[in-house]
């Protein structure tokens, strides 16, 4: 496949700390996994033990021809108690960053990927006005110590996820989310709320994790947190490129559904444009499409479905990049795109079809900096546990042995075409 792409284009894979590192004991997700009546199918425990095995995983990517690695720094490790910053954890992530550079991989760092410190969530989390300042303080501390090693920073992963969850929960309309969560009503049960309050040692209504229904006020806090973080990052490391990532569907529509589809897009993306106006790039995360009916609802997914219940539709990525480019004239990075499947031949085909869409976007003049596949490893898919396999590399849950799938080498072969 020839993309006629400039030399700066990079191909790599993504992970998030909580999903792969293991033993993230100070986070809100860990607390909610362990609690009685949890909505998580199982606890994360050691996850993929990437915290201890990152050198093996990074070197394997480099050997296969990958040029970049997107991963997250875990706030709950850096600041397990408010104001108590752990320098040894900064040293850990410094080692990860240096390992990327040593192996010729561009590190793309996400500062917040869904999980938050337990103490932050207990004090109101992403509905608390103080969160923007607290998040910026954490980002400032990280960048002060390792900023020069980070060329790209994504402040917040899928900033719009809470709004997407709120829409689905409020409408009670069955629909997929681009995240592995249960959308039943367990979180509203009286016993669940009591247990939640007991675990976080506060009023249960006050507990507001990032992955929950977000109010308009909470959405404003997320936008303010991003802008405050960007300012803090640029102050400590002016050369670092800063952006934010979004969960974006390819919204299509039946006759009579155009206006509703436009509203969905505006809520998911366009209303964030003022907050990202000074950013260097936008991160696009896409897995499928949604078709809006004339009554404004989402048509149930049809045709071939993935393990996650999404429609198999790799063409969605190119469509979304084109749609974003209508309003955003700066660079974009595909920070997530992938498929949950037990049949790796589907993954190989999905990647190639999705990258064909990226090629078309590039040829039309859109500045796509890179493509980061989700995910490097089979990992902990949030509420759904270890049941969904998105990884290019299989992980034995008992031994932690890694077994690269054919898709891993297939994507590596594509990446080798664009090595500098």
Automatic annotation (TrEMBL):
It comes from Faecalicatena orotica. The keyword Hydrolase applies. This is Aryl-beta-glucosidase. The keyword Hydrolase applies. GO terms for molecular function: beta-glucosidase activity. One of its GO terms (biological process) is carbohydrate metabolic process. Belongs to the glycosyl hydrolase 1 family. InterPro entries: GH, Glyco_hydro_1. Pfam families: Glyco_hydro_1. Keywords: Glycosidase, Hydrolase.
């Amino acid at each position: 496949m020839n993309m006629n792409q400039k030399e700066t284009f990079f191909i790599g894979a993504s992970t998030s700390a909580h999903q792969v590192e293991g033993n993230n004991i100070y986070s809100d997700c860990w607390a909610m996994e362990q609690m009685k009546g949890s909505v998580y199918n199982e606890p994360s425990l050691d996850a993929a033990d990437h915290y201890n095995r990152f050198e093996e995983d990074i070197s394997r990517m480099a050997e296969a021809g990958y040029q970049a690695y997107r991963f997250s720094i875990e706030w709950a490790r850096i600041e397990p108690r408010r104001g108590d910053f752990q320098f040894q954890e900064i040293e850990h992530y410094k080692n990860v960053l240096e390992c990327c550079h040593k192996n010729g991989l561009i590190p793309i760092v996400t500062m917040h990927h869904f999980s938050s410190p337990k103490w932050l969530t207990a004090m109101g989390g992403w509905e608390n006005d103080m969160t923007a300042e607290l998040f910026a303080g954490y980002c400032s501390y990280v960048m002060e110590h390792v900023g020069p090693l980070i060329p790209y920073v994504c402040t917040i992963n899928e900033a719009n996820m809470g709004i997407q969850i709120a829409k689905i929960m409020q409408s009670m309309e069955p629909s997929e989310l681009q995240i592995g969560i249960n959308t039943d009503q367990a979180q509203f049960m009286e016993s669940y709320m009591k247990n939640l309050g007991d675990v976080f040692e506060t009023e249960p209504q006050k507990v507001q994790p990032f992955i929950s229904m977000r109010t308009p006020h909470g959405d404003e806090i997320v936008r303010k947190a991003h802008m405050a973080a960007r300012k803090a990052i640029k102050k400590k490391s002016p050369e670092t490129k800063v952006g934010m990532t979004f969960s974006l569907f390819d919204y299509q529509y039946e006759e009579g559904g155009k206006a509703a589809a436009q509203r969905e897009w505006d809520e998911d993306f366009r209303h964030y444009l003022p907050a990202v106006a000074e950013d260097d790039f936008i991160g696009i995360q896409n897995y499928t499409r949604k078709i809006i009916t004339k009554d404004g609802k989402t048509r149930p997914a049809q045709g071939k479905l993935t393990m996650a219940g999404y429609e198999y539709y790799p063409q969605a990525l190119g469509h979304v990049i084109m749609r974003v480019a209508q309003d955003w004239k700066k660079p974009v990075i595909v920070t997530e795109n992938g498929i949950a499947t037990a049949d790796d031949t589907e993954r190989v085909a999905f990647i190639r079809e999705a990258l064909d869409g990226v090629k078309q976007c590039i040829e039309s003049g859109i500045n796509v900096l890179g493509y980061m596949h989700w995910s490097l490893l089979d990992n902990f898919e949030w509420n759904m546990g270890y049941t969904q396999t998105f990884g290019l590399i299989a992980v034995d849950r008992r031994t932690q042995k890694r077994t690269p799938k054919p898709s891993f080498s297939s994507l590596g072969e594509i990446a080798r075409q664009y090595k500098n």
